[in-house]
Design goal:
Blueprint: H1 7-30, H2 35-42, H3 48-61, H4 66-92
Helix pairs in contact: 1-4, 3-4
């Protein structure tokens, strides 16, 4: 028995894979790192206090710290654009 897989399913799977890849790569970069290491891995050292504060605030929303914020900040745009792409494809191109 053969089931036809919709193209939107492939888009959703690709989005999940890309988001997971970015989150994992960022997590590997920042796990166990000091604040300076995290800042240099994510945005350099320019404006470090503001960047650290922002990442700590984002991470605090999910109960984490600056490292969690860095992971979320890196993965969120990928997930957002994937969700938009999925919605556009689903709305206008899929039967």
């Amino acid at each position: 028995m053969s089931k036809k897989v919709k193209k939107s399913t492939y888009i959703a799977r690709g989005t999940i894979a890309a988001t997971a890849t970015v989150a994992t790569t960022t997590a590997i970069s920042v796990v166990g790192g000091s604040a300076a290491t995290i800042m240099s891995a994510t945005a350099g050292t320019a404006g470090g206090a503001a960047i650290a504060s922002g990442m700590a605030t984002i991470g605090g929303v999910v109960g984490g710290g600056m490292a969690a914020g860095a992971i979320i900040a890196a993965a969120a745009p990928i997930a957002l654009f994937g969700a938009i792409g999925y919605g556009v494809y689903k709305k206008w191109f899929e039967d």
